[in-house]
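Render Ribonuclease H1 N-terminal domain-containing protein in 3D.
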Amino acid sequence: MDPFYMRESIICNPGDRAIATRQVEDFMLANIKKGAILIPYFPEDKFCTLIVVHPQHSHAVYLDSGRDKKKDYTHIRALLNDALTGFANKAGPLKVERKSRGGLVLTHTTNFPCLRQSKEDNGMDAWYAILQMQEYIKYADDMLLPESLRNRFGNMADAPDREIRKNWGRIQQFICTIILQDVNNRSGEFFYGYGLPPNDEIELRLEMSRDERPFNSLEGCRPFPLGMPTTYVVYKGRVPGVYDDWEDCRRQVHRFSGNSYKGYPTRVEAEGRYARYLAGEMRDMRRNRMKTMAFVMMVIVTMLVMFYVIVV
């Protein structure tokens, strides 16, 4: 399910809301055997709420770490209700059904006790959503006991930031593991086989989402990652030159002793680098030729001197 559509600024548009509704409906059908699905939702561009949906029981719980600020869930309520109706039409009757105006609806609990931020808008909403997702999974068995669950989350609601901040590094490592095993790996559940999107496409999606937060890492803010190479320069290989395809480049350097090659994001940059490399090679050749000529001249002069000494 594309998180791009799970934000208020997108689903307020009827066309985009219809696309998001189909995505949620398909997600419910794909996970029909699971008792609940977890959906991160952005009621505002800088806030994140984790929504726990129980399709078979027609119930949705909103875990909002920044619930001190009142939020409008009108559009996401309508979206989830429409998705539930489509899900029931394809999956069959639900265990618990609630109807309104001819369609199925969820019971939306928006003030459920959960992990809470120490202050309003501290910029960590998404991290809290992930942390609450982990806590939900950890206490999955207790989900069948609503009162026990409310008490447990009620105890966590007063936890200060310093007590949970240590988990964020572990969450980052866990996300990296998912990317390596399930996204980049061909056998992974979330394998994206269409190649990496270019940086300008990523920037456009961020601009459309109005997400201006910097990229974060364990080492702090980093600049935007460099683009993937599209052109390759073979400096030392079977046939040195500029190649637009990796397979052509690989054929020139594969099992070639002392090979040297590098990828560049644009052909213009690749051709410029290769031209400078050739110019440097020409300078080295001229320099070596002059050294060779000087050595030959020195040898000739030495032989002439020795011949003169012997004759005289």
